[in-house]
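Sorry to interrupt, but I need a hand with the structure work. It will help me judge whether the discrete encoding reads sensibly. Write everything out right here, beneath this request:
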Amino acid sequence: MDHRATPARSNELGAFLRSRRAAVDPHQAGIPDDGRLRRVPGLRREELAQLAHVSVDYVVRLEQGRTRRVSRPVLDALADALRLAPDERDYLLTVADAGPVAAARRAGRPEVDPRLRQLLDTMPGIPAMILNRRTDVLAWNRGAAALLTDFGTLPQEERNLIRLTFLDDNFRALYADWPRAARECVAVLRMEAGRTPHDPELNALVDELGVRDPDFRTWWAGHQVRGPRQLTKTYLHPVAGALTLDVQQFSVDTHPDQQLIAYTAETDSASHEALRFLTQWSAAGPVLRVAPVVLCRAKPRVED
């Protein structure tokens, strides 16, 4: 395997600090222009040290991985100096071993409670599925198969939303704004990788995507992170046309590693009518994996 193509996950704390330091506008951070040429974007190490009230040597040791466990007050000071968003702050605490310890996870793909499967089946008008935190698709209803793809035709190891988003041309063509959706996928996966750095299946997924897709490789190196939040996505469906849907995410109390995902549309909207047509169409017969002929487009190379 080409080590240059595989996203590195060693010294995640140092890599994250460097990436966030490079993203800070010195002027907005209150750093006066001293007339010196800036060889790299963002804050210099000494400027971050000044803003966080720590020594430059301490910042160097953090970024080089020579200091791992950091006190909460220092992490808060670094987060403030780097102007981190809430998700980024949570990620910093996680990779610095200061956040809550993640619960032990069972190997492989856990079973879905039969009652959850029954719940999916009782939602005929709402595409829905059960995911784990790696976005492996564990269970789905007919609506989800009609909207996205018939997951039952795929090998189990390929039933992963992020993998499909990058490596399946038909799945990719469903997104009206693929770069935005793909970046969100990378940010979600990066957040989960910080929580579970020793998950072999997650690491294998990151390695595969890093080798096979240059956009994934570029965006993974950017260290953007995102936790659960309300999403709205527009799909270009080969049967139902354009659908703008709210992506609802619900935690499963009895299975903390699982989420119920449901796709809904605003009442009385064109998307609501299109979604109703799609679910009625899927109920009329077997769900097929429909290849979008008109809407399918060549895989773009997206520059960061």
